[in-house]
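question for whoever is on the cluster today: can someone run the full assembly for these? two chains, 524 residues total. i dont have access anymore since they changed the login thing
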Amino acid sequence: MDWQAVARSLFGNDHDIVASGDFLCGTGRCADTVFAVMGSTNHAEIGIELTLALAKEVIRTMRDHPRRPIVFLVDTQGQRLRHRDELLGIHRCMGHLAQCVELARARGHRVLALVYDQALSGGFLASGMMADLCAALPDAEIRVMNISAMARVTRLPEERLRALAQTSPVFAPGAENYVKMGAVDALWEGDLAQCLMAALRDAPAHDARRELGLTRGGRMLAATIAERAASE
Amino acid sequence: MQSYYEATARERIAGIVDAGSWREILPPATRTLSPHLAALELPAAFDDGVVIGQGTLEGLPVLVAAQEGGFMGGAVGEVHGAKIVGLFERAKTHRVAGIVLLLESGGVRLQEANAGLIAVSEVIRAICACRVRGTPIIAAIGGKFGCFGGMGIAAGCCTSIVMSEEGRLGLSGPEVIETARGVEEFDSLDRALVWRTVGGKHRFLLDDCATLVDDRQSAFRSALADALRKGETLDVASLERQQRMLEERVERFGRCSDGEDIWRGLGFDKPASVPLLATDAFVALSRRLRAA
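^ ran it for u. tokens below:
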């Protein structure tokens, strides 16, 4: 689904989201609630400029529209892999964006994310994965890297990884595995506006992903280990 | 062990906390192993490559996490990440002056794929939430493997960073960029180029790390204590300042193709000499140039 179709499903014609380059920004209204909408399209590479554009928009929303809920529309092939981005401190820009999202949450903005196409590692950490609740469309692709690249970097046999991917959500790309592991709350199907309003109502205020991963059986240790580290 | 660079995670902790004050949480005796490495028949570690615990640092009560570069380059898996996240949870119920992160990591442990990525995300979120609560989080970076991937973002979320010249901090490691875009984009074997791009001095000049120290454990220790004593609040005004600073950086240096061009822009007449300057002289000179 392209971003225009997603925006229409969420807000009908009641939105003013525009794309400038790969950057999406605007507002949308769903059942009397106005959302600040921001994100990326064209499988954007997330470089310093796009990161700072997102951060600026989160700050502006905090300043001008206290408590207005925020929706990230996610479509990224990952962080931009360039010498220039490293030279200028892309890690710092992304850290800055993550802090902006956290402060927004603390100030009463609900933060939701919808992976409507692709979400890869670094491009996703400072935006969608910072949300109170992250959802995905059923055919969205979420992964760290593809299995061949993983095999190359880890020097593990590709057939071995493919076999493991059949049985374990840990190794296989795909949104449904992130649901099992608790990082994606649900796959949104049917009436997206209804999904959005339900998410706004139900989004947990704390990071509940490891508990979800335990309940759903896809990530058995994170919750227990964190609990032991906190209390033993 | 005097050198921070050469030290293991446990040696670093011994070098920075007050003698006799340390208590490790989930120590190796608890055999807190990664199940995913076992599934791949890869060697595991009884601490999964990260040491966590509590102690005092120059009398200040602190929680500390130290990543062990010697185990999978400090990469973050499910258990490794959950230990760090749990330490941040602990800060909610234990009165501490701050949290100290001795970071050394390539980021997501690819052998744990999705579980590694989610774990890194949980660490980033735990750091940010703790900052909003007002607890200082100070990172130290000065190990062989640097601090990259999602852990580079995590470092970028901390209150303050202490680095040595030998430390490296970034998002995509030079090898990753070279593999994706070719050697013309980033020659990962050109050590001088790597240090001009992600090394401690460059990060200090851009204000991505607040303190630059010599590669000595004692130097890290006193810099960490100083940083812990400086409180800093995270609010809209401070994020607006940070936004402005980063936008100005891109505007001013966005066309530079090398660290030396940026250093020249910052007032260094002979940027080629920057790598040769001793830490003290370098820090003093850059402070003078910043003031001018």
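summary bc i know u wont read the tokens: Chain A touches chain B through 77 residues (CB under 8 Å). DSSP finds eleven helices and eight strands in chain A.
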